[in-house]
UniProtKB/TrEMBL annotation:
Pfam families: FA_hydroxylase, Polyketide_cyc2. It comes from the Bacteria. The chain crosses the membrane at residues 20-41, 53-73, 111-134. One of its GO terms (molecular function) is oxidoreductase activity. Residues 56-211 form the Fatty acid hydroxylase domain. This is Fatty acid hydroxylase superfamily protein. InterPro entries: Fatty_acid_hydroxylase, Polyketide_cyclase/dehydratase, START-like_dom_sf.
């Protein structure tokens, strides 16, 4: 019932052909794109200064297009774009998550790069029609505008590839790439991927549309956060499931680490706080929580502090699979400040908390079905 990133990666890599070659994949895309750009530029004749304005306008236009496609087709299921949604949200975002953003082998490039045939489709169904339409007005503008849509496509592929390189790679250390790499890592958070940081090359549209989100990287002095993520499919609606899970007073009913919760009844909204006694990783403790976000039927986030410099971030996300079926995703991030506690986490606590987190979702699935009644079935229509 749970699906970890490691398990998904193993399954995905096993399905990739052993003959797959990322150099041929990337080389074809780059070669085909440059060939199309060269053919378009070969049609230019005595370009006037005003005609060169087509270059920045085309790049801005493509930046807008890729933003809209990424946001509304890559993260919202549309019938005519099911394949793109499945490959992006289903494969790419299941393969990479914060803390696990870098490729580890040649087969991993299969889930980073667009399919090789997509640039052919892009050139024939987007760049070529644009060129033919604008050519009726101005052939130079047509060639410049159409070629820049192909340049934008190649820039997306190159930047996206750089954003999945190890942080120590020389390309990943370039200032602009480093900033975009951080924005892309934040986009890969489950709680942010549908609403933040859709641009890959230049975050202009994210800034204009208010979807830009920035958070500095964790300070080395604070230490990295341990991140655990599990999911389970629950046969109840997304609204009811999240309302139940976001009610901390109910946590002792289904989470094996939660002993007692003091706070208001029902799902808690942003700004509300509560106290919790826990027994996690073999240790007792007390947590003071503050809710940061509650979007009914979609997402709930909270953070907490405890003894030994313990910091936690918890998020619940619900994805509606059907009218009465929900994919529930729980993401827990935590860290200790003292060095001794960090060492204990690596040697002992993490494995125990991992097991407890996985068990909690199985228990949530069971208890939610008892706590959340199904709506009554509609009465059958009787002919008059």
């Amino acid at each position: 019932m749970r699906d970890t990133i490691e398990h998904f990666r193993e399954q995905y890599r096993a399905a990739v052909s052993p003959r797959y070659n990322p150099w041929l994949h990337g080389g074809f895309v780059l070669g085909y794109g440059l060939l199309c750009i060269a053919l378009l530029y070969s049609t230019l004749r005595q370009v006037q200064p005003l005609e060169w304005l087509a270059v920045p306008l085309a790049l801005l236009f493509f930046n807008l297009c890729i933003y809209l496609v990424h946001r509304w087709l890559g993260h919202h299921k549309q019938r005519f774009a099911r394949l793109f949604y499945a490959r992006h949200s289903g494969d790419h975002h299941s393969f990479f998550a914060p803390g696990q953003m870098t490729y580890e082998g040649r087969k991993d490039w299969r889930v980073i790069l667009f399919p090789a045939w997509l640039i052919v489709v892009h050139s024939l169904l987007f760049a070529l029609p644009l060129w033919a339409l604008l050519r009726l007005w101005n052939s130079n503008v047509a060639a410049l505008f159409a070629s820049c849509t192909l340049i934008g496509y190649l820039a997306y592929e190159v930047f996206h590839a750089c954003e999945h390189l190890p942080a120590s790679h020389p390309l990943a250390r370039l200032p602009w790439v480093r900033q975009m790499r951080r924005l892309h890592e934040l986009h890969h958070r489950r709680e942010l991927m549908q609403e933040r940081n859709f641009n890959i090359v230049l975050p202009l549209m994210d800034w204009l549309f208010g979807t830009l989100y920035w958070q500095p990287e964790e300070s080395p002095a604070d230490g990295p956060m341990t991140r655990l993520q599990h999911q389970v499919d629950i046969p109840r609606s997304a609204e009811a499931t999240l309302a139940y899970a976001a009610s901390p007073r109910c946590w002792p009913q289904w989470h094996p680490s939660s002993l007692q919760v003091l706070g208001a009844e029902g799902p808690l909204s942003a700004g509300q706080g509560f106290e919790e006694d826990i027994h996690a990783g073999g240790r007792r403790g007390h947590l003071s929580w503050r809710v940061e976000e509650y979007l009914p039927g979609q997402r709930w986030r909270a953070s907490a502090r405890g003894e030994h410099g313990l910091e936690l971030r918890l998020s619940y996300e619900c994805q509606a699979l059907a009218a009465q079926r929900t994919r529930f995703i729980r993401t827990l991030e935590y860290r200790f400040q003292p060095l001794l506690m960090r060492l204990g986490n690596q040697l002992l606590f993490k494995r125990r908390i991992e097991r407890e987190s996985a068990a909690s979702l199985l228990a949530l699935c069971e208890t939610a079905q008892h706590a959340i009644p199904l709506p009554p079935a509609p009465a059958p229509d009787h002919p008059v």
